[in-house]
Amino acid sequence: MDKFRMVFQFLQSNQESFMSGICGIMALASAQLYSAFDFNCPCLPRYNLAYGLGVLLVPPLILFLLGFVLNNNVSMLTEEWRRPQGQRRKDAAVLRYMFCSVAQRAMIAPAVWVSVTLLDGKCITCAFCTALPMEALGNASHRSLSQGEMKRVLARIPCKEIYDGQELVASEVAIRYLRCISQALGWCFVLLMTTLAFLVRSLRPCFTQTVFLKSRYWSHYIDIERKLFDETCAEHAKSFAKVCIQQFFQSMSKDLVATHCHPPRKAPTDAGEASEKLLGITDWGTMNTALKSWHRCKPPLHLHPTAPHSSNGWAGEWQPPTQPHTQPPAPQREAAVYYSGV
Fold it and tell me: What is the pLDDT of residues 273-294, one digit of tens each?
C-alpha cells in the first residue's frame, strides 16, 4: 500500500510530465488502432461519403474528448470558470491559458489519427469516388449509362472484387488518383499542425511575454492551491474522525466503568495533536459553512499577516481590514505603480 501511495504522490508532483506521457501513449494507441481497424467501404452511392468521412472525423472527436476526460486540469478549469466572483476576480487570460494548455495535449491523438488516415487514403477513396472527373480519367464518350447508374459503378471502385465498369474508368487509375489527393492533404495537414505547434510553443511567448508569464504563474497557483486545499481537507477530515472516534470510545469506557463491566483505560496521547489540526472547526455545520465560503468567496490574493480571520470570508461576507494602511515609501510606491501597470 505504501508503494502505491508513493507512486500516486510521484504522479501528483510530476503531473505535467505524466500528462505529456499519457498524450504520447494515446497518440501511439490511435495509430495502432487505425492499423488494426478493418476498413470496409460499403460501395454504395448514398453511404460511401458518410462512411468515409465518419471514419476520418468521428474517431478524432472521440480521442479529443477522451484527452479532455483524462486531463485533471479540466475540472480545475471548469471550477475556476463557473465559480462566483467573490473576493477574487476571474482573469480571462488565465482561463484562456489553461484551456489552451489542455486543448494542446488533447489534440495530439486526433492529429495522429487524421494524419495516418489521410496518408493511407482509403477514407478519401471511399468518400469521393463518385465525384471523379470523368472527362480526365474515364471514357467520356460512353453514353449508355444514366447518371444514377454511373454513380453506382463509380461507387464500386474501392471494391475491386465487385467492380464491373472497366469500360467506363480503370479502377487502378481512379484509386491512385484519389490516393494521391488524400496523401497530399495528409502531408499538408501534418505541415499545418507542425507549424501551429511551432508558433504556439516558440513565437507566442515572444509577443506577449508579460501576459504569458502572468497567466502561467496564476495557472500554477490555482493548481497548487487546489492540491493544498484538498490535502488540508483530507488532513482535517482524518483528525476530525480520529477525535470523534476517541470521544466515542472514551464515553463508552465511562459507561463501562459506571456499570462495573470493564476497567478504565488511559486516554490516547495523540488526541491533542489531532485537535490542533482541526484549526478551530469542530462541528458539522461549521465545516459545511467553510467549504461553502471557499467556493463562493475564495480568500483575496493579498496577504495581511495582522488581519483578522473574518477578512477571509469564513464567517460570512468579507469585511475590510480595520487597521489603517500606512503609505509606503516613495521607491516602493513607484515600484508598485510600475508592476500594477504591467
Answer: 677 778 778 888 888 888 888 8
